[in-house]
Design brief:
This protein has 448 residues and is an alpha/beta fold. Helices cover 60% and strands 9% of the residues.
Length: 448
């Protein structure tokens, strides 16, 4: 479904993902590509333009969440706007009549008759008693088709071959429904190759007689934007209650699905995803957006981070970081080498699960080592401390002697020191992050 669109968007997202900063300049290329992808998917021009404008405005005004990359936030914004475009929330059928009636309308070949059968099957599974009514009097074959489908899905049908007035069929079917305890009547109406006045007149008369709870326009999604033009006409003529998009399993590019709501302001209620009678699904904008983007992971990541920040529960985020990237072991590894932080015991004691680790660690031995390290560093000149690269063999011998250790031990310490510097870089980043979140940086907590 919408493979080409998904492929194009994913390519854009690859570039966006690593984006470190959002500015009009550095997102405009990506947004242009998103717009091109939408247009190629046959999305209505105006709809695509509005979409990009909204995404742009939101992206530039976005509040930066520290723990995720700005580019990922833009992907989330695109997702949210896509959900809006598709209709925000799912729309259920309104079936509060006794019986309820559903008028299925649409052009020839859009999938009306098939969809009537699918919907009847679906409603039956929901515990309803549907009745299928053949209200296409112009094509005897259409009546037979509906009759066959009704048998396949095991629901009753009202088919009156040779009838020449849909209003009579409609009235009689109401009686039939009553006699057979059916509480939802699905009318399979006639189509045309193009919407025309006689068709509209007939549908209007049917509508006025039945006062249906739903007038569902069956639209072939493969016809792209053209489907939206058709929808506009049907909506003006009949005031439809929603649409069922068919053939989304085929080479539909997405244009119809993505433009329908924006153009008609009516919801898509179901989608047809195959020729078989079980191939129908209630339409969920959220799920459809996820499918189109193929980016569920990023979206939920941003959602989770945004939630945490929204709640201003920096503590939670902190814990998350510790649980996630920042394992206690990593941290401990650093702490072991960071003499300046204070007593190992006090530091570990402050960490979740730290007391457990304390039990397993030979703190005294560690602290002793810290002391020796301290001694070695003290035996260095300021210049040597600032720039260990100048430590040649002669200097090393002097320092080892001065601090009472072997040269090997000094060398080991220097190697460790090197590693420690790398670690410290990481740790500083952590501290800065904590400070930004309004938490006391660990170093000031830890200094006693
Ligand atoms: N692949 C696919 N084919 C469908 C779908 N819905 C309907 N069709 C096919 O579209 C053709 C026309 O369907 P039909 O119900 O007779 O259209 P109608 O003229 O509007 O009543 C048939 O061959 C159906 O099998 C769908 O969701 N997916
Ligand atoms: Mg038909």
């Amino acid at each position: 479904m919408f493979d080409t669109l998904t492929g194009k968007l994913q390519k854009v997202f690859k570039d966006l993902r690593g984006l470190g900063k959002i500015s009009e300049a550095n997102i405009s290329d990506s947004l242009r590509e998103v717009r091109m992808a939408l247009l190629e998917a046959d999305v209505n021009y105006q709809v695509a333009r509005d979409f990009i404008e909204k995404v742009k405005a939101k992206s530039l005004g976005v509040e930066v969440i520290q723990s995720i990359q700005p580019g990922q936030q833009i992907i989330k914004i695109i997702h949210d706007e896509l959900v809006n475009l598709l209709g925000s929330t799912g729309s259920a059928l309104v079936l509060n009549g006794n019986p309820s009636s559903i008028l299925m309308v649409g052009l020839h070949g859009s999938g009306k008759t098939t969809t009537c059968g699918k919907l009847a099957r679906w409603l039956k599974k929901q515990g309803r008693q549907p009745l299928l009514v053949a209200a296409d009097i112009y094509r005897p074959a259409a009546m037979e088709q509906l009759e066959t489908i009704a048998k396949q899905v095991e629901v009753p049908s009202y088919v009156k071959k040779g009838a020449d007035d849909v209003l009579i069929i409609a009235k009689e079917s109401l009686q039939f429904a009553n006699d057979n305890h059916c509480n939802i009547i699905l009318f399979d109406t006639a189509g045309r190759l193009q919407i025309d006045e006689p068709l509209v007149q007939e549908l209007v008369r049917l509508r006025d007689l039945l006062k249906p709870q739903e007038i569902l326009l069956v639209l072939d999604a493969a016809t792209g934007q053209e489907a939206v033009n058709v929808a506009k006409h049907f909506d003006i003529a009949l005031n439809i209650s929603g649409a069922i998009l068919t053939k989304l399993d085929g080479d539909a590019r997405g244009g119809a699905a993505l433009s329908f709501k924006a153009v008609t302001n009516k919801p898509i209620k179901f989608v047809g995803v195959g020729e078989k009678l079980e191939d129908i699904e209630p339409f969920h904008p959220e799920r459809m957006a996820m499918r189109i983007l193929g980016m569920g992971d990023v979206v939920s990541l941003v959602e989770r981070a945004a939630e945490a920040v929204e709640e201003e529960e920096a503590k939670k985020l902190e814990e998350k970081m510790r649980k996630g990237q920042f394992t206690l072991e990593d941290f401990l590894e650093q702490l072991r080498q960071m003499k300046k932080l204070g007593s190992l015991e006090s530091v570990l004691g402050m960490l979740p699960g730290g007391s457990e680790i304390l039990k397993q660690t030979d703190v005294t031995k560690q602290e002793k080592e810290f002391k020796r390290m301290e001694g070695m560093i003290c035996a260095m000149t300021t210049e040597e401390r600032r720039n260990p690269a100048i430590l040649n063999a002669k200097r090393r011998q002097r320092i080892a002697k001065g601090s009472g250790v072997s040269v090997t031990e000094l060398n080991t310490m220097l190697n460790r020191f090197n590693q420690m510097q790398q670690m410290m870089k990481k740790f500083n980043k952590f501290q800065r992050m904590m400070a930004k979140m309004g938490k006391t940086p660990p170093s000031s907590l830890m200094k006693k």
